Amino acid sequence: MINLSPRDYQQKIFETAKNKNTLVVLPTGLGKTLIALMLSIERIKKYPSKKILILAPTRPLIEQHFNYFTKNLPELFAEMTLFTGEVNAEKRKEFFQTAEIIFSTPQCIANDLSNKLYDMNEVVLLVIDEAHRCLKNYDYTNVVNFYKQQAKNQRILGLTASPGSDLSKVEEICRHLEIEEIEMRTRDSEDVKNYLQEIEFNKIEVPFPPEFIEIKILLKRIYDSKVEQLRSRNLLFDSANKITLLKLQSNLAKRANMKDFNAMIGMSLTAQAIKISHAIELLETQTLSGLEDYLNSLKKQADEKKSKGVQTLVNSTEFQAALLSLKLLRSKKIEHPKIEELAVIVESEFKENKNAKIIVFSQFRETASSILKRLSEIPNVKPALFIGQAKKVISGLSQKEQKKVIINFNSGEINVLCATSIGEEGLDIPEVNAVIFYEPIPSAIRKIQRAGRTARLSPGKLFILITKDTRDVTHHYAAAAKERKMYKTIEKVKENIKNKPKTLKEYIKDED
Fold first, then answer.
1. Predicted local confidence at residue 1, as pLDDT
2. Does pLDDT of 94 surpass 70?
3. How far apart (Å, rounded) are the C-alpha atoms in residues 120 and 304?
4. Angle between helices 399-411 and 59-72 (to 10 degrees)
5. CATH code of the domain in which 287 resides
6. By CB neighbour count within 10 A (0-12 exposed, 13-18 middle, 19+ buried), where does 13 fall?
7. Would you say the pTM of this structure is higher than 0.90?
8. Would you say residue 203 lies in a domain?
9. Rounded to an integer, what distance in angstroms lies between the CA atom of residue 502 and that of residue 475?
10. What is the torsion angle, in degrees rounded to the nearest 10, for the CA atoms of residue 52, residue 56, residue 61 and residue 66?
């Protein structure tokens, strides 16, 4: 006998998902996986000997789902298998045919379906975790397309903490998943808030020091000069920011391939502007040590004559003056004021509760490394890096190493995680007492995922560090505005789905 005790809102969402393709929007830690489990049980009972396919975007995340189902289903209820890239194609084909519940990353299944190793004919439930990724031609979308073409008794369940605030993207997700109903809950929903604890929000503003402003002025002169040259060449018409410059770079690359001389020069100018924009971002919002490493890496590229554009940048008097001023500050052991403010917060939290667990989120791994170094100096603070696999200046952590960090964090051997975006999505990180954003991020999806790490089982705290008079301020308000917009967007999409005329396929299904 399977003993499940769903909360009221989980039961209500399950009742909807039984009968309709459903997108579930539920904050991190509120039990989306239990809804998937309940629906899997219902579909297996309704269609004995058929298959359930559960997808999650990363291997640690899909392993987490597999372990959850293994723990909560009786041993002989269903044959379960976990697909990884290490299982060869022939074995996957064999396992797919014999298993009843298959857990996989979308890449594995998309490749197998393209190679016709098996089909989706017998799959009666497709669960898509982190469904906000079901956009464009991502592997999720390819798998869903195969499912819609091949499966006889279709049911789709999408799970996400936030699908984002862009109406067209939320509509695209719903279109790809053929969503018939959206079930959304927030921390303030009537049937949810009784299960959550209070979250104390602290916005911590730090000054942007005058000596930093001098460096910014020098870098800004270079940036403005590159942008002005792009305008005078009739290549840039919008306001210049990271997004418009990256789009321009992509468009110019196509023209440069056709030997368009103006586009080639534009490519170089755009690349230079993006590099300086990144340097200003590091100066304003990150660490001086990170900025120094970055400017030194540009100098090294110039010395090795890797790019004429980089040589032009580095040889400019403004760049040389900025680097000189920066080295002077670093020789005096001056660092970004956020680092010291962060150390004060962490020290204070451990004085209040010696068993506290904290996650510090930062955008860049170089920053996470600087944070680790500073926090290691505080008595009783046992920090560790929690970063992804990609190897750049700082080596990443393999999935095995990531798992070990989480185990040590669970046991208390580690009590502070210095995490990049890897710590945002889905992973089974235990309840923490405080979440600290080293910088605000202008993404509603990522803000919600980060904040969802605390105030589930006991009261929690959220700290956001903001450098005054910098892009930090803009990003902070942008994320809040996008979060408010997200809820309105979802309501609008819900309304559109409700009022959408039925297709012939839907009429036939209703008649059945």
1. 47
2. yes
3. 53
4. 50
5. 1.20.1320.20
6. buried
7. no
8. no
9. 41
10. 10
